[in-house]
Amino acid sequence: MAKFGHKDLLGMGALSVEEITLILDTAESLKAISARDIKKVPTLRGKSVVNFFYEPSTRTRTSFEVAAKRLSADTFSLSASTSSMVKGETLLDTARNLQAMNPDLIVLRHSSSGAPHLLAKEVKAGIVNAGDGINEHPTQALLDLYTIREKKGRLKGLKVAIIGDISHSRVARSDIIGLTKMGAEVTVSGPPTMIPVGIETLGVRVVYDPAQAVRKKDVLILLRIQLERQSAVLFPSIREYASFFGLNKEILRSANEDVIVMHPGPLNRGVEITSEVADGPYSVILDQVANGVAVRMAVLYLLIGGAKGDNVD
Ligand code: CP
């Protein structure tokens, strides 16, 4: 197996097409482990992974924990509210103290953009960015790429629309970087107040009318309105957002007939997506969650096990 030449996974920008392909291929070979009766292999036995989540999470935190356990790594969880950060300890001091216990990897989610980059410079352990502020969420993008490739058989040339609060979404940013790098054509849509000025420089097209953005697309990625990250009211009301930008069955008809509908979660049912679409035949939302475990197993393996060429069977 090819070597993965990184200590950390901080963002999609640092990954080459070959490295992204390596992660997706590795995830493909690891996915079967989760379908076995005994869902565990000894690949990362003796390795330790700290999950440090400074922000709430359902999917990412559980997924990393499940992924590490399926590879037999020891896992330890820490949240801001149960750590000594509530007593005033800084993130850096917390990380240095964790480092003193010699973990192999720290998975960090933090509300500040750049927090994982800071830790990566200061600690010997590898750092995985599990979402930093409005910057990046690389493992979400990797599991999105994996799911699209699994369902469509390719990434290159696919027409993808990302609809919602683009400005405040780290998923949008990582997806855009990953999808364009892999040759997909990306359109973004949402209220003008939620589309960052100059986003075209990332290689995407901006279409403000969501009905137009959905037309003839192979993949639709819906995003949650990130109310917790907005400092001003960016649209008149939730009801108006839902009626202008929410994905419903009628708008979906103008997409390609084999379109897939994706959402990183958590969903706001009836706001950016109707329940009928979220639970309907085009939705692959729960496939994304299932694939997240395989992709995170691949990331852990390549960062702290794969370079040694361990057998994953
Ligand atoms: N997609 C995602 O990051 O979900 P969580 O916030 O539940 O981890």
What's the SSE blueprint?
Elements: H1 17-30, E1 48-53, H2 59-70, E2 74-79, H3 91-100, E3 105-110, H4 115-122, E4 126-132, H5 138-152, E5 159-163, H6 170-181, E6 185-189, E7 205-206, H7 210-214, E8 219-222, H8 238-245, H9 249-252, E9 260-262, H10 275-278, H11 285-304
Parallel strand pairs: 1-2, 1-3, 3-4, 5-6, 5-8, 6-7, 8-9
Bound molecules: phosphoric acid mono(formamide)ester (CP).
Residues 57-60, 131, 137, 140, 264-266 line the site of phosphoric acid mono(formamide)ester (CP).
What does this structure look like?
- The chain starts with 16 loop residues before the first helix and ends in a 9-residue tail after the last helix.
- α5 (138-152) crosses α6.
- It is globular and about 55 Å long.
- It is 36% helix and 14% strand.
- By secondary structure, it is α/β, with parallel strands linked by helices.
- The chain is built from eleven helices and nine strands.
- The protein has helices at 17-30, 59-70, 91-100, 115-122, 138-152, 170-181, 210-214, 238-245, 249-252, 275-278, 285-304, and strands at 48-53, 74-79, 105-110, 126-132, 159-163, 185-189, 205-206, 219-222, 260-262.
- Strands 7-6-5-8-9 form a five-stranded parallel beta sheet.
- α6 (170-181) links the parallel β5 (159-163) and β6 (185-189).
- Bound molecules: phosphoric acid mono(formamide)ester (CP).
- Phosphoric acid mono(formamide)ester binds at residues 57-60, 131, 137, 140, 264-266.
- Residues 57-60, 131, 137, 140, 264-266 line the site of phosphoric acid mono(formamide)ester.
